[in-house]
Design goal:
It is built from 7 helices and 10 strands. It is α/β, with parallel strands linked by helices and about 230 residues long. It has a single domain, classed as Alpha/Beta hydrolase fold, catalytic domain (Rossmann fold, 3-Layer(aba) Sandwich), CATH 3.40.50. Strands 1-2-4-3-7-8-9-10 form an 8-stranded mixed β-sheet, sandwiched between helices. Helix 2 links the parallel strand 3 and strand 4. It starts with a helix and ends in an 11-residue tail after the last helix.
């Protein structure tokens, strides 16, 4: 029995920190000694998971498995998300399966996950949350003009949303106004600036995204110290 325990512990602690494939990219959590939730990031257009996820994984892996599925439709040199939430669910599921293989038994797929989305991916993150009630209580949506219904999101089990954009991003006014409407509609929401830039991640994005994740997951932001 002791040997079995020791092997399971070693498999969790020394799990491969990174997996990649046609399905996308996944990072093991900083601490995989116990089951941890999934944080799923949907990238934007003209891109792939290799573009944004390396800049975010140091922050996201503090909370759980950071999973970055590849968009379902080729677009220019990258991919994008098209269709419906059901169309996006397939690539997300494939990426979660790959993450599960990194440290078997340590991905808590039944627990409360967090969806993050950038630009085109932000729209599909919101759609996926509505289509999978109770699965994604926290959302971080970046740089996309959206029209979200607080009652519908609450009905899907969403409890908190962060909307974020750079000060020069053309999506900023609509996202800031949406955060206020959602909050007034009974869904805890806040707008977060990404600094003076436009539709791109700033150099201090890891610290900003970590604070946003901590807020939607309702944990102490002390977890973000050092970023």
């Amino acid at each position: 029995m002791f040997l079995a325990f020791a092997l399971a512990w070693a498999a969790a602690v020394f799990a491969s920190p990174l997996a990649r494939g046609p399905w996308g990219v996944a990072y093991a959590p900083a601490d995989a000694t116990a089951p941890r939730p999934a944080l799923v990031f949907l990238h934007g257009m003209w891109a792939g998971p290799e573009d944004a996820c390396p800049a975010l994984h140091d922050a996201a892996a503090r909370f759980g498995f950071f999973v970055c599925p590849r968009g379902n439709t080729p677009f220019d040199a990258g991919t994008m998300w098209t269709g419906t939430a059901a169309d996006a669910a397939g690539p997300v599921r494939a990426a979660l399966d790959a993450a599960d293989r990194m440290a078997p038994g340590k991905l808590d797929r039944g627990g409360e996950g967090t969806l993050l989305g950038y630009s085109n991916g932000a729209y599909f993150a919101a759609e996926l949350a509505r289509a999978q009630p109770g699965r994604w209580p926290g959302l971080v949506l970046i740089g996309m003009k959206l029209d979200l219904d607080p009652a519908g999101l609450r009905g899907a089990g969403v409890r908190r949303i962060v909307l974020a954009a750079g000060d020069q991003d053309e999506t900023r006014p609509s996202m800031q106004a949406l955060a206020q409407r959602l909050d007034e509609g009974g869904l805890a929401s806040r707008f977060v600036t990404l600094g003076p830039g436009g539709h791109a991640f700033p150099p201090d994005m890891p610290a900003r995204i970590c604070d946003a994740i901590a807020w939607v997951r309702e944990v102490d932001r002390a977890v973000c110290e050092g970023l």
